[in-house]
Amino acid sequence: MALEKTLNDDLKTAMKAHDKLALNVIRMIKASLTNERVKLGHDLTEDDELTVLSRELKQRKESRTEFADAGRQDLVDQLDAEIELVEKYAPKQLSEEEVQQIVEATATEVNASSMADFGKMMGAVMPKLKGKADGAIVNKAVKALLSK
User: Fold this and answer.
1) How crowded is residue 43: how many other Cβ atoms within 10 Å of its Cβ?
2) Any signal peptide, and if so, which residues (predicted)?
3) Burial 72-104 (b: 16+ CB within 10 A, else e)
4) 79 contacts 112 by C-beta, under 8 angstroms
5) Which architecture, in CATH terms, is 96-146?
6) DSSP letter assigned to residue 41
7) 91-101, pLDDT tens digit by residue?
8) Would you say 26 and 7 are in contact if contact means Cβ atoms under 8 Å apart?
9) Helix H segments across 18-134?
10) How big is the CA angle at 91 (ends 4 and 45), to the nearest 5 degrees?
11) Where do the structural domains in the chain lie, given as residue ranges?
12) pTM
């Protein structure tokens, strides 16, 4: 619930400052959190909130890539600003080196040695890195380790 209080405080600040971008992004995050709460039928846990924030970030990053490919720099710039705002509420992301260390430790734990163990590895490592690392980076690190 700390996230909700932070969002409400930031929403008030954005309203007073007439910051339309921040208002829109915060309202979208709050709407996503509300939708998730209704879908689950109970108050959100910290993990649930993290899932929603990760989804919001992923959607914006994917859209940013599509707009960049289409040459729409105006929309890319807007999404960059939105991504920056959403990242403010998400936990700090781990570097690729930190992800690699966790993947290597997990490989030892689950005795993964070949690409046949890919599913087992991803199943073991993703809960450890949930919200702390992009799934694509984790996927790449696991594939690199298992294909050695």
Assistant:
1) 9
2) none
3) eeeebebbeebbebbeebbeebbeeeebbebbe
4) no
5) Orthogonal Bundle (1.10)
6) T
7) 788 888 888 88
8) yes
9) 20-40, 46-69, 73-89, 96-110, 118-129
10) 45
11) 2-89, 96-146
12) 0.73
